[in-house]
């Protein structure tokens, strides 16, 4: 790792605290291993600053790797390419790249492991870009990222960039506070063109969204107090879920029409879009806000959530219809439950990513810049 | 001599026909030699050979022996001779006797033949004389016989001619049985000669018998006649080949009509009673149910008691022994309808005393009826009916209780006046508590009446009642839990299948109600359930109709578990609702301004007022419902001056620390460091059912939210300073609410820390300015509160 020359005091102390805690955590984890036989989290302490964004490098079929971006107002921000070593015992930094501004959102391209997108701000300015990781050679330990595309049509603060999650698609969605943009991108020619745009109006305040993996024309957007759905061909709203103060939304990767939301107060709620009036299921979520929520890409009944109470929770929530043949009272009917609560975090956890390559592994990123990779293998085997 | 002896022996043997083979010695007396000893020396054997015998003797015996043998043998021979002589004499004697007898017989028979011939002649003459007499008397006898027959016939004819008169006489004397007997007796004659000789007579008697039939019919119909007489009449009619069945149907129809009118009136009075019931006082209900159920209405003119009906039925049974089936149907119908009335009534809320009274009245009738018509199986039928009535009653009682509880909860909810709201929550809580416990105990008392009643019918249902009551409580509390959820707008979770229901908007739910529900759940878990459990154990144990594998129907442990978790859920929900409300406030505060272009702070931002106001509202609600924590904290504002002094202490502290910014930071970080581990424990501890715990949890959550909101922004120096000012101001008011100063300090520092991190130019406000702005705000808000209190 690189030690910056002008290290602010805040960071050094924080760092040392984190390192100190890692040791404590290690002891704690060891105890937990002997008690419960669960696998411990693998900690990556390479991020030096606060961070919010982590993404699974889905297109990397050879390694289980993640991209994490830092959020530092005053220091030079970094993007780390982290790889889980083959035995799964440690996290290795495969690449460290400087990023011009603090990263609020980072998504990896689902079909090219070297391409990813970031949303960033710098003081009053903001932007969203698509980057390419340069060919890695050992000489340069901090090579420059290749800037491919700027998504610079936004007039509001950009919230996130969405790639179509299910494979190669030449479209990209970017969401700012008031608009939804559909881009046609050409990474080889470094070209991006707005195909269509939809203004949500002053009343709605978009803060995020998700692209339906089952339908490349459907996208969900998180508004202040509702979840809105658009058809990208017409750029018209198709439906909405009212009374949902969502922070995050994730489509069920296996079953169409199902999605999950993370909300400040209501915790985690599972919805069926064909019946948007009331949720299919509710899970308590976190002690404070539930910030992020993700279905396991392979076992869709496993749901992971991250919260500002510095925990990551693993839930078992059977989607509706799966067990309808078993009567409600029957003890055989699997119950929805909190499988595990990972509590080895010192600050709010904002970043969460399942590995597509190894669905039993997820990475989490807490605000203090600590990446923890955990395996949920024991819970998968149990079902 | 030997030869001679042998011949004699043979003669004797043949004469006495003794068994030849047995040896002749038997008769002589020398039985000492059995045939086994038929050796040559055996003298009595048939194959006796004297020579061999002799030679043997000679060989075997010496002289002395031979001599002795000789003497023996000589004696024997002498004996035998004597015997023989005696026999010969004897036989001879017999022979002479026989000859004499034959001679005498010959003499007597002579002359007998002549006598016989004489006898024959006499008998022949007697015979001829007798024949003579017979033929001479024959004609006369025949004539006499003829005359006798005619006389009989004439007597019969006379009877038939007399029949009408006789019948009339019988009718007059009401001796119908005789009349019928006479008529039936003469029936064959009428059939034979009715058309010719006895035409008039037949007509007359038929007329008479018609009268008899009419009279008999009248007799059957008349209720005043003794039953036996009526039964006899039926028998007589039957003998007359009268169509009795049609008579029976007619009578039964009459009874049926009668019962129908009875029921109609019954229903009318029932309906009118129900009508009046709605308007009348509850005290009248008992009286009304009396009139509903007993058939003796005060106004009824021809109303009869079931006793009389039973009498009629008894009569009918005797009169028409084959009408039983129809009667059973009728009676069962009657009772079905009567039980039906109770079943309808039971859907309203009733006391068990009413139910008991109703069932008792019917049961009395049933027993009465059962004596008459045991085959109708009325007791079993009643048992079935009572079973469903009581089951219905129990379930109705529980659903009414459920309704009452939710009414008690919601009734006092929407209070438009601000002032009355203070106690309305408390009222709701106390009211609903009372309804839950008192209502449950009252129900138990009611149900006990069912158990304690000595009615035979209910005694059979005892186990079932116990089970139903237990099941009822189990179901009641489960439903209550669901109802609670529904009241909070979470009902769709308990009932996910009804897609139609519009989920009650969580926003519209009264937060106070949620708090009431939380506390009520605790009350139910800790006080109501144990109390009810005691009562049930005391008087509703047993049961067991469900079978042991199911265990008792009422599982207090399960209910307690449900309400424990419900209580926690409601408490959390309350906290969540409150924090969400504040969260929206904070979100607005942080998303509206452009923090990067923030102007220099001039005053404490007004959102703190809103925040404190919200917290104040929480305090009011919480104080009404929840108990105080055990540890009473020391209030900072016990005296008015202490606020200022603590404030000035704080500023002095600040002044000291701010001399060196580096030191400020290190101190901040040190405290940060120190609190790092505490953070989780302090912020997200388990909420307790105390005022302090709930308020402090809400404040902690809000401050944590504040921190998260700050982290999402980027501040310029003025923006940072504004946050610093607001937070600094909040410090003391917040501590008024919470006993956990350390946690509040920590969280407030976290907020400032977050702002510091997110600030491009984090230079804090000068202490004097900070102080001045805060004191301005304090005096201003004090003024405001004074003016508002004056107004």
UniProtKB/TrEMBL annotation, chain A:
Query: Alphabetically, which GO biological process terms does the record hold?
Result: protein ubiquitination
Q: Which residues form the EIPR1-like beta-propeller domain?
A: 39-315
Pfam families named in the record: Beta-prop_EIPR1
Looking up InterPro entries in the UniProt record yields: Beta-prop_EIPR1-like, EIPR1, WD40/YVTN_repeat-like_dom_sf, WD40_repeat_dom_sf, WD40_rpt
Q: Which UniProt keywords apply?
A: Repeat, WD repeat
Repeat as a keyword of this entry, yes or no, is yes
Transcription keyword on record:
no
Q: Where are the WD repeats?
A: 283-315
Per the record, the domain of life is Eukaryota
Give the UniProt family note: Belongs to the WD repeat EIPR1 family.
Q: Per its record, how is this protein called by name?
A: WD domain, G-beta repeat
From TrEMBL, chain B:
Q: Where is this region: Disordered?
A: 18-43, 633-659
Record bears the keyword NADP? no
Alphabetized UniProt keyword annotations: Coiled coil, Golgi apparatus, Lipid transport, Protein transport, Transport
Q: Does the keyword Protein transport apply?
A: yes
Q: Coiled-coil intervals in this record? A: 63-129
Q: Which domain of life is it from?
A: Eukaryota
Q: Please tell me where this protein is predominantly located.
A: Golgi
Locate the compositionally biased regions of type Low complexity.
639-649
An annotated GO cellular component: EARP complex
What functional role does this protein have? Acts as component of the GARP complex that is involved in retrograde transport from early and late endosomes to the trans-Golgi network (TGN).
Family affiliation = Belongs to the VPS51 family.
| Summary of subunit composition and partner proteins | Component of the Golgi-associated retrograde protein (GARP) complex.
Kindly provide the name given to this protein in its UniProt entry: Vacuolar protein sorting-associated protein 51 homolog
The species this protein belongs to is Musa troglodytarum (fe'i banana)
């Amino acid at each position: 790792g690189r030690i910056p020359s002008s290290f602010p005091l805040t960071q050094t102390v924080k760092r040392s605290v984190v390192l100190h805690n890692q040791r404590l955590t290690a002891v704690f984890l060891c105890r937990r291993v002997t008690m419960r036989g669960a696998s411990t989290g693998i900690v990556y302490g390479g991020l030096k600053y606060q961070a919010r964004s982590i993404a699974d490098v889905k297109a990397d079929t050879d390694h289980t790797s993640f991209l994490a971006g830092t959020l530092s107002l005053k220091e030079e921000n970094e993007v780390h390419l982290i790889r889980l070593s083959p035995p799964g015992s440690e996290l290795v930094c495969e690449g460290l790249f400087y990023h011009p501004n603090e990263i609020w959102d980072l998504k990896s391209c689902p079909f090219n492991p070297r391409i990813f997108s970031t949303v960033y701000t710098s003081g009053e300015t903001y932007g969203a870009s698509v980057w390419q990781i340069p060919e890695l050679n050992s000489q340069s330990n901090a090579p420059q990222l290749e800037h491919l595309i700027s998504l610079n049509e936004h007039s509001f603060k950009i919230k996130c960039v969405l790639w179509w999650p299910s494979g190669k698609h030449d479209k990209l969605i970017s969401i700012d506070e008031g608009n939804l943009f559909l881009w046609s991108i050409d990474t080889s020619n470094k070209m991006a063109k707005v195909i269509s745009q939809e203004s949500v109006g002053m009343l709605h305040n978009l803060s995020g969204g998700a692209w339906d993996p089952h339908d490349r024309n459907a996208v969900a957007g998180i508004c202040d107090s509702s979840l809105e759905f658009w058809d990208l061909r017409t750029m018209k709203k198709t439906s909405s879920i009212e009374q949902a103060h969502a922070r995050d939304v994730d489509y069920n990767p296996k079953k169409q029409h199902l999605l999950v939301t993370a909300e400040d107060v209501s915790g985690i709620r599972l919805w069926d879009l064909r019946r948007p009036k009331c949720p299919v299921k509710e899970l308590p979520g976190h002690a404070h806000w539930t910030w992020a929520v993700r279905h396991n890409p392979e076992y869709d009944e496993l749901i992971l959530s991250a919260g500002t109470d510095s925990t990551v929770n693993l839930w078992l929530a059977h989607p509706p219809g799966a067990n309808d043949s078993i009567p409600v009272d029957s003890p055989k009917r699997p119950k929805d439950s909190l499988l595990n609560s990972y509590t080895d975090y010192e600050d709010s956890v904002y970043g969460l990513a399942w590995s597509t390559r190894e669905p039993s592994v997820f990475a989490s990123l807490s605000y203090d810049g600590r990446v923890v990779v955990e395996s949920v293998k024991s819970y998968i085997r149990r079902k | 001599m030997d030869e001679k002896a042998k011949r004699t022996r043979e003669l004797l043997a043949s004469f006495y026909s003794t068994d030849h083979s047995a040896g002749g010695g038997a008769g002589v007396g020398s039985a000492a030699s059995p045939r086994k000893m038929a050796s040559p020396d055996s003298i009595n054997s048939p194959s006796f050979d004297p020579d061999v015998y002799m030679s043997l003797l000679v060989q075997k015996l010496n002289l002395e022996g031979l001599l002795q043998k000789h003497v023996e043998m000589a004696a024997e021979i002498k004996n035998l001779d004597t015997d023989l002589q005696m026999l010969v004499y004897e036989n001879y004697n017999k022979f002479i006797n026989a000859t004499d007898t034959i001679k005498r017989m010959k003499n007597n028979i002579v002359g007998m033949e002549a006598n016989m011939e004489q006898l024959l002649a006499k008998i022949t003459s007697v015979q001829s004389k007798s024949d003579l007499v017979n033929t001479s008397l024959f004609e006369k006898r025949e004539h006499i016989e003829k005359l006798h027959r005619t006389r009989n016939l004439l007597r019969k004819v006379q009877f038939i001619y007399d029949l009408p008169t006789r019948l009339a006489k019988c009718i007059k004397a009401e001796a119908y049985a005789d009349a019928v007997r006479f008529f039936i007796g003469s029936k064959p004659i009428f059939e034979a000669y009715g058309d010719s000789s006895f035409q008039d007579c037949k007509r007359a008697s038929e007329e008479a018998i018609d009268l008899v039939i009419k009279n008999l019919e009248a007799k059957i119909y008349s209720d005043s006649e003794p039953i036996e007489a009526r039964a006899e009449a039926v028998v007589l009619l039957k003998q007359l080949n009268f169509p009795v069945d049609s008579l029976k149907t007619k009578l039964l129809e009459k009874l049926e009509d009668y019962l129908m009118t009875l029921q109609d009136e019954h229903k009318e009075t029932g309906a009118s009673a129900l009508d009046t019931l709605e308007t009348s006082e509850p005290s009248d209900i008992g009286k009304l149910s009396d009139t509903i159920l007993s058939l003796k209405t005060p106004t009824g003119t021809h109303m009869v008691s079931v006793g009389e009906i039973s009498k009629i039925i008894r009569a009918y049974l005797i009169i028409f022994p084959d009408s039983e089936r129809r009667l059973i149907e009728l009676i069962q119908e009657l009772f079905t309808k009567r039980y039906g009335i109770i079943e309808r009534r039971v859907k309203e809320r009733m006391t068990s005393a009413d139910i008991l009274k109703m069932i008792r009245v019917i049961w009395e009738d049933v027993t009465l009826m059962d004596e008459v018509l045991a085959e109708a199986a009325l007791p079993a039928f009643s048992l079935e009916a009572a079973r469903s009535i009581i089951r219905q009653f129990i379930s109705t009682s529980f659903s009414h209780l459920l309704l009452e509880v939710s009414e008690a909860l919601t009734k006092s909810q929407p209070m438009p006046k601000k002032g009355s709201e203070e106690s309305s929550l408390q009222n709701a809580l106390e009211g609903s508590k009372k309804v839950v416990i008192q209502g449950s105990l009252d129900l138990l008392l009611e149900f006990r009446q069912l158990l304690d009643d000595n009615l035979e019918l209910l005694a059979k249902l005892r186990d079932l009642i116990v089970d139903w009551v237990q099941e009822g409580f189990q179901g009641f509390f489960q439903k209550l839990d669901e109802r609670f959820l529904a009241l909070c707008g979470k009902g769709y979770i308990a009932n996910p299948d009804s897609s139609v229901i519009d989920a009650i908007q969580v926003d519209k739910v009264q937060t106070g109600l949620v708090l009431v529900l939380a506390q009520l759940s605790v009350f139910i878990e800790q006080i109501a359930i144990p109390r009810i459990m005691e009562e049930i154990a005391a008087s509703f144990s047993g049961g067991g109709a469900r079978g042991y594998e199911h265990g008792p129907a009422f599982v207090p442990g399960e209910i307690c578990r449900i309400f424990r978790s419900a209580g926690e859920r409601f408490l959390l929900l309350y906290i969540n609702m409150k924090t969400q409300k504040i969260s929206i406030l904070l979100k607005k505060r942080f998303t509206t301004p452009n923090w990067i272009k923030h102007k220099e702070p001039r005053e404490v931002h007004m959102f703190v007022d809103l925040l404190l106001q919200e917290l104040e509202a929480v305090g009011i609600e919480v104080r009404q419902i929840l108990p105080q924590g055990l540890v009473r904290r020391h209030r900072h504002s016990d005296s008015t001056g202490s606020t200022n002094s603590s404030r000035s202490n704080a500023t002095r502290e600040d002044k000291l620390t701010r001399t060196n910014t580096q030191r400020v930071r290190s101190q901040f970080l040190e405290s940060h460091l120190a609190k790092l581990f505490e953070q989780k424990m302090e912020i997200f501890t388990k909420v307790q059912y105390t005022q302090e715990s709930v308020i402090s949890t809400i404040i902690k959550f809000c401050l944590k939210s504040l921190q998260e909101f700050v982290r999402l922004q980027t501040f310029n120096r003025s923006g940072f300073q504004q946050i610093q000012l607001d937070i600094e101001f909040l410090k003391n008011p917040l501590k008024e609410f919470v006993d956990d100063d350390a946690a509040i300090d920590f969280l407030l520092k976290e907020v400032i820390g977050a702002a510091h991190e997110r600030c491009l130019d984090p230079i804090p406000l000068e202490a004097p300015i900070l102080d001045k702005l805060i004191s301005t705000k304090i005096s201003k808000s004090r003024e405001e509160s004074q003016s508002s209190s004056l107004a």
